[in-house]
Amino acid sequence: MFLFKLRIFFLRILGYEKPLRVALLKYLSLKFKKFRPHYETILLESCLEAKKLGYEEITVLELGVAGGNGIISLEKYKKKIEALYNIKINIYGFDSGEGIPSSNSEFDLPFHWKQGDFKTDKKKLEKITTSKIIYGDVKNSVDEFVKYEPKNIIAIFFDMDLYTSTKDFLSQVNKLQKYLCPRVYCYFDDIFNPNHWINKYVGEQLAIEEFNSENKNLKIGLAPDSINDFKFPLAKGQLFMLNHFKHTDYKKYIGFEGEETLSINDTKVKTKIF
Prior knowledge:
The protein is α/β, with parallel strands linked by helices. The protein contains eight helices and seven strands. It has a single domain, classed as Vaccinia Virus protein VP39 (Rossmann fold). It starts with a helix and ends in a 30-residue tail after the last strand. Helix 7 links the parallel strand 4 (153-158) and strand 5 (180-188). The longest helix has 17 residues, at 37-53. The protein has a seven-stranded mixed sheet with strand order 3-2-1-4-5-7-6, sandwiched between helices.
């Protein structure tokens, strides 16, 4: 039995198509719950885009706070990025507070998610976080959130697990149009499962498909996979962009600063990786 397990272990290592350092990074993120390089880089790049658009204040949402590791990580990264870019970052969390709700929908993968998992310890979280967390059914939470008049929503971290919960939020995005940035970075935590249970017919992917079919001027898209995708560690395949095509700043140029038309006399390209 030991030799069999060892064989499977090595087969999985040898069959892993990405560099093993990617697997190591993923392992560290699972081992240390507040180590989230994907959260950090998404927040960083979204703030950079906001500054190019001329925004001095932005809003970031985490949908599905659970134990609070994600929102605590965002607060840690926020301090450094605010100082780096001289920008104000507002963080809001959404959660029922009661863990995963009951569901009879086959689209929610009830064989995968268990009711009551990921319940929030509200009192404990209040002591260690400064962000505003809106508790309750997301069907009602969006209306409450709008009362805060959020400025320039530029990133949303989706971690609601279920199709129905994700659908309930996305069906209300129209209420947020005047608060959205031209492009909103959307990270979907449950877009993939190692058992390949998740696809476009269930879960978050289905909610995205339906959102796009129901909206003309708001579209959520996934960029094509590319070897040049180096800016967002651990976000590969899970980072989408919500395009707000009718935003007044959608066409505003935000390309590389100082980038000029390349000429034959250029000795190097004026570009940045950070």
